Amino acid sequence: MVHHIVMWKFKPEIQDAEKPALKKAMAENLKSLVGKVPGLLTVEFVEEPLSSSTHDIALVTTLEKAEDVAVYGSHPEHVKVADTYVRPYVTERACLDYE
Prior knowledge:
By secondary structure, the protein is α+β, with helices and mostly antiparallel strands. It has one domain (about 1-99): Alpha-Beta Plaits, CATH 3.30.70. About 30% of the residues lie in helices and about 30% in strands. The protein has a four-stranded antiparallel sheet with strand order 2-3-1-4, covered by helices on one side. The chain is globular and about 35 Å long. The N and C termini lie close together (about 5 Å). InterPro entries: Dabb (IPR013097), Dimeric_a/b-barrel (IPR011008). It comes from Blautia hansenii DSM 20583. This is Stress responsive A/B barrel domain protein.
């Protein structure tokens, strides 16, 4: 099993009032990828990190095997969700994958 963790900060121009709706849309759409992307087992979206955190939001996924990380990243359903609900609003991406 592989864990794939991605963290982002919101772009500076994103207003605080916009963030709850954006987080909700991100969470719903990223979680919907389970069952659509081969090898993707679970998706957790962290909307409310502790104040000690360096990033605003995080995605925590589990995949069957290391090769599935690349499959997930290039899968059309993932690309569509990322391009629509995540990438337009975030910056400073950090990623960690481990077995």
